[in-house]
Structure formats: structure tokens, C-alpha cells
Write a structure and sequence with these properties.
This protein is of the alpha+beta class. The protein is 53% helix and 12% strand. Strands 2-3-7-6 form a four-stranded antiparallel sheet, with no helix packed on it. The longest helix has 42 residues, at 227-268.
Length: 393
């Protein structure tokens, strides 16, 4: 049995926990230095976890999105930067695996991802349109068998550390802003000119710098399906679900620290209920709500997968939007509660109960695809779509 086969014979969750233990050692350092979580990502690669969602015939393990979400939740309890980088990579993998079927180049590329454990980034944000991934200003220039592209990307998370970047653009110079394509460019096919540094309150290790992106590659590297289809049926839902899973992980670790604090207080005063015990019980209830929200969303996505009518339905979009809104808002309440339970020990850095990093990272959740934009889209859909109230839906 090869070394790779020995690793893949172990369950995904166990491999994720081993990688997470490495990531946890460096989480505070990654945060303070605002650097790429190289140790955590190398551990994920060593565990052969980069291509697990790819089909077995292309070297993957055919993992479900629910299994990937579980990995994200495990990583979120250790290092949010590692978890977010892994989640964003898997969002691109989902698009490749499901929306480039039959494309020889993309199928060969998936084999490379599995074999070489490549890291894929994305460039959807752009100066002039912000984070609205369903609009592009830049346009692909196709000449014969070659595609060229220049994009003023306001954010490319871990762009300098990626092995390839999936980039959105207008189909051509005459296309509407919403008539988009997605193209995979390999590291030796593009240049990155730094325009802004990622110096932020939280999620510092994602290194989401801004760049002028310039690339030239064979036109066959453009995904065969329109980006509108990829975004509606995969990218938006997968983003909300995987982000929700890792945000749940961040909150779960905060609750674990608060629980440890209350247990320590209980040992000091036997027979007395510690002051934070009731607040901990309330917080545990909120954490379960977040978990249920994500799990329900995953179950609905898995049930709709492969059914374009179901994936394009307004009810599905509303449900996925609600996963993102509910999760991103509730984790802040949970971590704030944990801070109150732990008191100064949670407020200070460098204690077993420190929660500053958790709180700062959690604040990014409402901003990643702005909650206001999502609520605006949902409100429009609810004007014409009946709310789904079935517990079986």
C-alpha cells in the first residue's frame, strides 16, 4: 500500500482533526502576524484533503458537501484562517467537479489537484462592482485558441499562495455585465500587481490582498458552463454552507472555552453553581440553533443536487440566504456571551480562555457577501415567492 493510500484509508474527520491540531498551534501567530496559515494548509495537504470532493475517477474520494462542511467545522475550532482558506478552495472545487463535466482540460486539472494537492483561489470581486460576484466590468479577450484577461481585483484571498485562480469576467467586450464566464489560470500564466494590503480586524491570515491580475492562457481553460449557472446552482449555496460550517466551528470553540472556565470555577467552589453556568446553558442552546441551521441547509442542498429546477428555485435561494444570515448573526451573540462568562480571562490575550481572535474573526461573517445585499435579494424574492413552512422541505 502506498503512503497516499494509507492516509486515504483513514476517515476524513480523523484526518481533518490531525491537520487541525497542527493549525491550532499556529493560529494565534497567524493572526498576530497577518500571514498565510502555511502550517495548517501544509497539514491538510499532507492528509490528502485538498481534492477529496473530486470524483474517484479523477483521483478524488467523492466526498459529499456535508463531509467537506464537517472538515470546515473541525478546522474552524482550531484556526479560522486555515478553515476559511480550505472552504474557499473547496468552493472552487465544487464548481470544477460539477460544471466542467466532459471538458478534457478541466478533468485533467482535477487529477493534478488530487495528485499534487494544489490550492485554488478565486477572483470575483472587482473595482467598480465590489463584492457583487454576478457582475463583471473586465472582459475576456479571445484570439484564436488564446484567452487574455486583465482584472482590477479588489480582493484575491491567498492569491500569492495559490497554485491557480478561477477568475470571472464578461464573456467578451460586447457582453452585458452579467454575461459572465469563469476561467482557470495556472500560476505561471498570470501576474499579480499588488494594489492593496489586507490589514484587517479579523480573518487576517486569509491574506486577501488586492491586485491587478493579468493573464494569458489557452481558451480551453474557460469552464464550459455560463458563470450565471455556476453561481446560482453551486457557488452561492456552497459558499453560505461552508462558511456557515466554519463559523459554527469558531463559535463552538468559544463555547468550549467558556465551558472550561465554568468547570474550573465549579471545582473551586464545590456545591455552588458558578455565576456563568446559566449563561453557558443559554449559549449552548444558541450554538445548537446554528448547527441545526447549517445541517438543514446541507441536507436541502444534497437533496437538490443534480436537479437544476430545484437549485434554481427561489425557495432554495431563500433557504441558502437564510443559512448565511442566521449563522453570521448568531455567532456574534454566542461569542459575546462566552466573553461575559469568561470575563477578563476571555478579554485578555494569551490565556486558555482568550476570545479576542474568535470575536474579531466572527465579525467578518456579516461582511462576506454583505448581509444587507443578501437581505435585499431575499426581500425581493419573498415578494413573489411563498415562504416554505414544511418541516420536510
Amino acid at each position: 500500500m502506498t503512503a497516499a493510500a494509507k492516509i486515504t484509508a483513514i476517515g476524513l474527520a480523523d484526518r481533518a482533526k490531525r491537520a487541525a491540531s497542527v493549525a491550532a498551534e499556529y493560529a494565534d501567530k497567524v493572526d498576530v502576524e497577518g500571514r498565510f496559515p502555511v502550517e495548517g494548509m501544509n497539514a491538510l495537504k499532507a492528509e490528502r484533503l485538498m481534492g477529496v470532493m473530486i470524483r474517484p475517477e479523477f483521483g478524488g474520494e467523492g466526498a459529499t458537501l456535508t463531509e467537506i462542511a464537517d472538515i470546515c467545522a473541525i478546522l474552524g475550532q482550531s484556526c479560522s484562517a486555515t478553515a476559511m482558506t480550505y472552504a474557499m478552495h473547496q468552493i472552487q472545487i465544487a464548481s470544477l467537479a460539477d460544471y466542467a463535466v466532459g471538458s478534457a482540460w478541466h478533468e485533467a486539472f482535477q487529477k493534478r489537484i488530487c495528485c499534487e494537492q494544489l490550492l485554488i483561489a478565486s477572483a470575483t470581486s472587482e473595482a467598480g462592482i465590489g463584492g457583487n460576484l454576478r457582475n463583471s466590468i473586465c472582459a475576456a479577450e479571445v484570439e484564436g485558441d488564446t484567452v487574455r484577461l486583465t482584472k482590477d481585483a479588489t480582493v484575491i484571498s491567498y492569491g500569492a499562495d495559490a497554485d491557480a485562480i478561477m477568475v470571472t469576467s464578461r464573456r467578451n467586450a460586447d457582453a452585458a455585465h452579467s454575461d459572465q464566464i469563469a476561467t482557470i489560470f495556472l500560476k505561471d500564466q498570470y501576474t499579480l500587481e499588488l494594489t492593496s494590503k489586507w490589514d484587517t480586524l479579523g480573518m487576517r491570515g486569509t491574506c486577501s490582498d488586492g491586485y491587478i491580475f493579468k493573464a494569458e492562457a489557452p481558451a480551453e481553460q474557460t469552464l464550459p458552463r455560463p458563470f450565471a449557472e455556476i453561481a446560482a446552482q453551486s457557488m452561492l449555496a456552497v459558499s453560505h454552507l461552508l462558511w456557515g460550517a466554519l463559523w459554527y466551528g469558531i463559535a463552538a470553540d468559544a463555547v468550549a472555552r467558556a465551558q472550561s472556565f465554568v468547570k474550573a470555577a465549579a471545582r473551586k467552589s464545590p456545591g455552588q453553581v458558578p455565576p456563568g453556568a446559566l449563561r453557558l446553558a443559554e449559549t449552548s442552546s444558541l450554538l445548537q440553533l446554528v448547527k441545526a441551521n447549517v445541517v438543514a441547509g446541507l441536507r436541502q442542498f444534497e437533496g437538490c443536487k443534480g436537479n437544476s429546477d430545484a437549485l434554481n428555485a427561489m425557495s432554495f435561494s431563500v433557504a441558502m440566504n437564510n443559512v448565511k444570515i442566521g449563522t453570521s448573526q448568531t455567532i456574534l451573540t454566542i461569542i459575546n456571551q462566552c466573553m461575559l462568562i469568561c470575563g477578563i480571562a476571555g478579554y485578555k490575550n494569551g490565556t486558555p480562555f482568550s476570545l479576542g481572535r474568535h470575536l474579531r474573526d466572527a465579525h467578518s461573517a456579516q461582511l462576506m457577501i454583505s448581509n444587507d445585499r443578501i437581505l435585499g435579494n431575499t426581500s425581493t424574492m419573498l415578494l413573489v415567492n411563498k415562504q416554505d413552512t414544511s418541516l420536510l422541505g
